[in-house]
Each structure stands twice: as structure tokens, then as C-alpha cells.
Amino acid sequence: xxxxxxxxxxxxxxxxxxxxxxPVTLLTAEPCQVTQVKNADQDGYExxxxxxxxxxxxNKPEAGHTxxxxxxxxxxxxxxxxxxxxxxxxxxxxxxxxxxDYVQVIGTSKGKGFQGVVKRHHFAGGPASHGHKDxxxxxxxxxxxxxxxxxxxxxxxxxxxxxxxxVKNLQVVEVDKTNHVLALKGAVPGAxxxxxxxxxxxxxxxxxx
Length: 209
What we know:
The chain is built from 3 helices and 12 strands. It is mostly beta strands and 209 residues long.
């Protein structure tokens, strides 16, 4: 299993040999370091924790936790992968990925703030004529008179975006080992600079489970 912590850089495009344009999202992924290896006997499951963005001023708990790796990091993330082949201090970079790999990405979507039902839930809105002057984008009735309550889960206006989003089956188009850049086909959730977790090494699209 291949995995790394990256940051969203920007969107771009690449051209195939036949001239077809491929939209890609560029991710910058500096080399990460293994900070902790979890196993089933001690932790109940297998996982590998890696860190990026060295922390120059860690507190004592942070320094103690990453002592085996020899470096404290401000960003620590865990991947559920078989941990037998890793040890603290190992370096993980983009060189492990190859063009053609299908990966899964996890990021935080763009925050939209408080939005109404038309934008948030794709309501059609009310009629724009025949006396309707100020309720075009209102939700309409939220309940009946016979049951005097608003049921849980009713779609209403509220905060939109800023949620964890997982996208599967994004194909690796290009790997720039010198500049630590990954080019993935398609869109990746989040704004520029968003932290992205990349994992997977499938050679073909995977079914959703």
C-alpha cells in the first residue's frame, strides 16, 4: 500500500500523445517520515503514523512521541496499512507512486458559510410570479398542523462545506520526483493549500464498498 501526506497546489492540464487534454490537480508532497508503527498485539490494529512539516518548537509530549523518529512534526496522520515493513525514521516520498496508479484522496471541502436550501439542498424554489414577491428561495412548509413538530433531519438552511470528503479512483498522471509533485486526473476536494491524504496502489478502478 502506497500513502503520503500532500497539499493541494492548483489545477492544470496535461496532453496525451494523441493530443487529448487531461485535467489534473497538482499536489505537492514533501518527503514524510514514519513517527510510529502500530501493531495488532500492542495497539489492537496495524497502522503507520507519518509526519510532515518539521516542528522547531515542540512541547515535551510531542518531542517524546517523535523521539524514535529523531524529529518532531506539526502534522501527524495515520494510515491503516500492514505495518511490518516500516520502522520509525523511514522516509516516504512521491517516488513510490507510478503513472497509472489509482489512488484515494481525503480532504476538507471548501467552506461556503451559511447557505439556504436552494444552494445547499438543490431545492427548486417557489414561483416567481402571481403574488409571490419575497419567497422565491424559501423552503416552504416544514411540517403539518396535525403533528406539531419539526422532524429531525429535515432539510433546511445551514452551514455548508468544510466537511471531510473522500474521492476514490483518481488516476496518477505524472510523478515529479525532483519537485515532489503528484498530478492526479480530475478534481480533489478543498481549496489551495488544503491537506490531502493520498493512499492506494491499484492498477485499475476499485469498486465502492
